[in-house]
Design a protein that fits this description.
Elements: H1 9-21, H2 26-61, H3 67-75
Helix pairs in contact: 1-2
Length: 90
């Protein structure tokens, strides 16, 4: 797909300067920026979807972990005393 974009003079200049300083083409720079943006938007959308599904599961079964339980578990990561994830409970 080919698309034409028009930028104001200021942004156009900034894109050109960045492309020059990173030794890549304007097109490559913009493709990378757009890809990064699309991937972040997709990840955010997936996170929201999974969060809503998790909320519905919680409403159904009430299973959860407390903040303290999660904090203790995460604090153990990377230590000699790393513990497994605690079981969910009502």
């Amino acid at each position: 797909m080919e698309t034409t974009l028009t930028f104001d003079k200021g942004l156009s200049t900034r894109i050109q300067q960045l492309a020059t300083s990173t030794k890549c083409s304007n097109e490559s720079l913009m493709q990378t920026a757009i890809l990064d943006y699309v991937e972040r938007c997709e990840a955010k959308s997936q996170f929201i979807k999974e969060s809503l599904e998790s909320l519905e599961q919680f409403k159904t079964n009430g299973l959860h972990l407390t903040h303290a339980e999660v904090e203790d578990w995460l604090s153990s990561w990377g230590t000699d005393n790393e513990v497994p994830m605690p079981p969910c409970h009502n």
